[in-house]
Amino acid sequence: MKDGDMELLLEVAKFESSVDMEKEYRIGWSWRHVRIWPATLSRLFKDGYLDNVFRSNSFTGYKLSEKAKALLSSNRQENLEDKETATQLKLADDLFTDIIGHEDVKTLLKATLLAEKPVHIMLTGPPALAKTLFLWDIEQTFGEQAIWLVGSATSKAGLWDLVAEREPRILLIDEMDKMNAVDMAALLTLMEGGRLVRAKRGRELDINNPLKVVAASNRLEKLSPELRSRFAIRRLNPYSRSEFLIVVKGVLVRKENLSGELAEEIAQKLDGRSQDVRDAIRIARLAPQVGVDKAISLLLGGETSTNRD
Ligand SMILES: Nc1ncnc2c1ncn2[C@@H]1O[C@H](COP(=O)(O)OP(=O)(O)O)[C@@H](O)[C@H]1O
Ligand SMILES: [Mg+2]
To answer: Ligand 1 centre and the CA of 99: distance in Å?
Structure first.
C-alpha cells in the first residue's frame, strides 16, 4: 500500500457512508463522485481495495471491497486505542490539578471516567465549591468526546439532536436544575442507554460507547425523582475555615496572579466574614485600586478597619 492510500480509502468510506449505496449507487460511484483520478482508482482496484461493480464505455463504477473495509475498521480500532491510552495518561496526571482539595470527589470522578460502563454523577451543594470547575476540567481533557451544556441554554438544538449529531461519550451539564422539561425527558432515556433514531435519514444510531453524564446543580428539589435516581448524588460540603484559607490563597495566587503575601492577607481578613471564594476574587480585583480593607468593606459592607499600614 502506497503512502496516502489509507487517506484515500478514508475519503471513499466517508463518501459511501454519506449516500445510500443500495439505492442511488447500485452500479457504484465513479471517479467524479469521489474526486480521485481514474488511474489511482484503477491501481486501488488492482490491489484489491475496490470492487468494480459496473463497466461501460463511459462509466466505471466502483465500491469499497471487503478487504478495504476490514483494513479501515482495524485502523479505526488502533486509533481509538491510541486515543484511549492518551486519555488515561492525562487522567492520571493532569486532570483536576487546578482544583484544591476535594480529593474524594477527584477520585470518584476519575474512577467513573475510566469505568467501562456508565455511572452518572451529580455534584451538588452551595455555590463556589468548584462544581463548575470540575466539569470544565473534564471538558478540557476529553475535548471532542465531551459536550458541555448549561441547563438553561440547552433548548436551541435540543439535547437529543445534539447527542445524535455529535455522539459524545461524556455529557457535562451545569446548572442541571434549570434544564427544560423536554431535554430532561430526553436525558432520562439517554442515561439508560436508550437507542437514538436519527430522524433525517431514518437511520438508527447505536451508541456503542454508552454515554456518561456528569452534572452539577445547586439545588435538587427541581429534579424529578426518576432523574435523581439515575445519578449518584455527591454533595460538596461548604469549606471549613481552614479549607477556605487554603483554597482562597491557592486561587488568588494561581488564577489572579497575586503575590503569596497579598493572597494571605486577603484570606486572613476574610476569615469568618465570608465562605465564598468568589468574594475573595472580587476583593483581589479591587484591592489594587482601593486597598484590601476598603475593598472588603465596600463589597461586604460593615465597618472599615482603620489600622492600615
Ligand atoms: N477547591 C477549589 N480549587 C480551586 N478553585 C476553586 C475551589 N473552590 C472554588 N474555587 C474557585 O471559586 C470560583 C467558583 O468556582 P465554581 O467552580 O464556579 O463554583 P460552583 O460551580 O460550585 O458555584 C472559581 O473561580 C474557582 O476557581
Ligand atoms: Mg457553577
So the answer is: 8
Contact 215, 122 (CB under 8 A): yes
**Confidence band, pLDDT 50/70/90 cuts, at residue 161:** confident
Neighbours of 123 (CB within 10 A): 26
Ligand 1 pocket residue status of 100, Cβ below 6 Å: yes
Distance 214 CA to ligand 2 centre (A): 13
The set of residues, in sequence order, having a beta carbon less than 8 Å from that of 64 and lying 6+ positions away, is 9, 12, 13, 16, 49, 50, 51, 72
Q: Which pLDDT value is given to residue 228?
A: 94
The Cα 210–Cα 180 span in angstroms is 23
Q: Among 302, 290, 292, 217, which Cα is nearest to 252's?
A: 292
Cβ–ligand 1 contact at 131 (below 6 Å): yes
Distance 217 CA to ligand 1 centre (A): 14
The residue whose CB lies within 8 Å of the most ligand 1 atoms, and thus the one to mutate among 106, 109, 133, 274, is: 133
* Residues composing the chain: 309
Task: Round the CA-based radius of gyration of the chain to a whole number and report it.
Answer: 27
Model confidence pLDDT, tens digit, residues 59-111 = 999 999 999 999 999 988 888 888 877 777 777 778 999 999 999 999 999 99
Cell of 19: 449516500
Q: Could you tell me the pTM of the whole model? A: 0.72
| Residues, CB within 5 angstroms of ligand 2 (ion) | 132
The torsion angles phi and psi of 24, rounded to 5 degrees, stand at -80, -25
